[in-house]
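#struct-pred
JK: can someone run the complex with DP6? inputs below
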Amino acid sequence: MKNNTLRHKATAISPANIAFIKYWGKKDPKLNIPFNDSISMNLSGCSTKTVVEYDPTFRNDLVIVNGTEVKDDKRKRVVDFLDIIRKMAGKKWFAKVVSDNNFPSDAGIASSASAFSALALAGSRAIGLELPPRKLSILARLGSGSACRSVFDGFSIWKKGSGNNSSYAVAFAKPNFWNLVDIVAVVDAGTKKASSTEGHEAATTSPYFKTRLNELKKRIPALKKAFLARDFGKFGELVEEEAISLHVAAMTSRPPIFYWNKGTLEVMETVFGLRERGIPAYFTMDAGPNVHIICLDEDSKRVNLALKKLQFVKFTIINRPGKGTMLLK
Ligand code: DP6
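RT: done, structure tokens with the ligand placed:
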């Protein structure tokens, strides 16, 4: 039997991540260059495993996600990304891509970060490229902006940069730096109304967008300081403020985008209630209705119990700071 090297095959696993400071709006939509730096934590409980196999005899790319062949726009996004890798390697081979999420595929959790970082590593290694972490982060960013932050273990900062070679993530802190827990309260497992890519496009039409960028000049250093001092109260306040800021920008863009639903508000109110009872917990959301509740390990059981009781919460996923993108043997 031919071995993996001769078969040009590689398998990678990569986590999703939750941004404490968010990427919202693209300065360069083709290269996914953001307007601002962002900061995130990898999620130990939400990852994508991807196998890429190139074969000079294949006549087309085949993309299978969670057991189903992917077509149209979704396929095109993967094929365009494989084209970037093929160009880097100077090869024209077609590929078979098989990708699976370990979290429920219908959970409505953004999987583009885990998907494109896993694809960047498996796709580049299988074709014979050995990219150092920074180059891997740049490549992942070209597939999906937030994917560049999944490459490193624990917590990352994506430096916005000004062009393709200067926009990448770097490690900010190791997973064991802080025992934060992110509990995802899934309130809507369906597909979201507007994709994050559509949200990015609309972002700059919000009259609040410029104000948001100005606020970030203070919020980013303040959040870094609170994080490094492990000041959870201050950190949580800033995380929440940032999430609300993104959603205000989305709601005031033209056309307006409302990602929140009844369940989102139910969870937000519960988080306020937990704090009134002396349990420090803070919320954040991405481009969708599901809520990420950030708390400390010692409070995570109580927080999870409170969330699971809610009318609109279908299930929860518990995450700790996770490892970055890795090859599997
Ligand atoms: C709200 O990385 O999904 O989750 O580059 O178009 O793939 P594309 O966008 P994507 O945007 C993520 C937006 C966000 C905030 C964040 O993760 O920083």
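RT: quick notes.
The longest helix spans residues 209-228.
The mean pLDDT is 95.
JK: thanks, will look after standup
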